[in-house]
């Protein structure tokens, strides 16, 4: 564990807490893409298949349980909660997210490190996480008017991945034989998808105006 990894984990955790705060305190999921949340739930399920069979550390297990539990809680709230689901903008959140799942699965079957079920699913989760934010970004472009908590949630998600890239760079220069091309490539692609959002986020912060993305 190094400072960049810890900062990345805490930023990722903060993004989840911000979204939970928005949903359960304000009782609103306006501006939040259910499609992206469902993709993240699938990412965590396929990545943490070893949660009950492989113990790494207490910290690692707790973080896995938090991300699994929070992702399903968010999806359930947006689909089933009698108040929260009313604010879900189903007409705008129309990205066909299932079209992302199959290509990622095929790519995982073709490009992986070991041909085992857990390894292929772990690789699939990396590919899917790289593009899971797309429905959310498309929704923000369509709605244009982005509230502060939703903007902070997306920003923290992007910052988490950027910090992980710094973690990989640090480990590359401090650990022998640390090379993970699949992880690195997926992480870089994911970070690049946030580039446009980051630009407008900082512009809105600098000019003290409400965040809006171009259509």
UniProtKB/TrEMBL annotation:
Transmembrane segments: 55-76, 97-115, 121-140, 152-170, 182-202
InterPro entries in UniProt: ER_ret_rcpt
Key word Transmembrane present: yes
Highest rank taxon of the organism: Eukaryota
Topological category with respect to the lipid bilayer: Multi-pass membrane protein
UniProt keyword list: Endoplasmic reticulum, ER-Golgi transport, Membrane, Protein transport, Receptor, Transmembrane, Transmembrane helix, Transport
Principal subcellular localisation of the protein: endoplasmic reticulum
Short name of one Pfam family: ER_lumen_recept
Subcellular location(s) per record: Endoplasmic reticulum membrane
Keyword Protein transport attached: yes
Similarity comment: family membership: Belongs to the ERD2 family.
Protein name listed in UniProt: ER lumen protein-retaining receptor
Native species: Hevea brasiliensis (Para rubber tree)
């Amino acid at each position: 564990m190094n400072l960049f990894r810890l900062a990345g984990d805490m930023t990722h955790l903060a993004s989840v807490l911000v979204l939970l705060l928005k949903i359960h305190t304000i009782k609103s999921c306006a501006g939040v893409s259910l499609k992206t949340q469902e993709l993240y739930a699938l990412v965590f399920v396929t990545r943490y298949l070893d949660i009950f069979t492989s113990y790494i550390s207490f910290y690692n297990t707790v973080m896995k349980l938090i991300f699994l539990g929070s992702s399903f809680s968010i999806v359930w709230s947006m689909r089933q909660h009698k108040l929260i689901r009313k604010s879900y903008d189903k007409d705008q959140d129309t990205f066909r997210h299932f079209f992302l799942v199959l290509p990622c699965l095929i790519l995982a079957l073709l490009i992986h490190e070991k041909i085992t079920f857990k390894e292929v699913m772990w690789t699939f989760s990396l590919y899917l996480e790289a593009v899971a934010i797309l429905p959310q970004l498309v929704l923000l472009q369509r709605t244009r008017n982005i509230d502060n908590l939703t903007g902070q949630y997306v920003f923290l998600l992007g910052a988490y991945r950027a910090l992980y890239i710094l973690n990989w760079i640090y480990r590359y220069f401090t650990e022998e034989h640390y090379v993970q091309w699949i992880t690195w490539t997926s992480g870089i692609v994911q970070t690049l998808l946030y580039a446009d959002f980051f630009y407008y986020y900082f512009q809105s912060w600098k000019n003290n105006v409400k965040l809006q993305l171009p259509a």
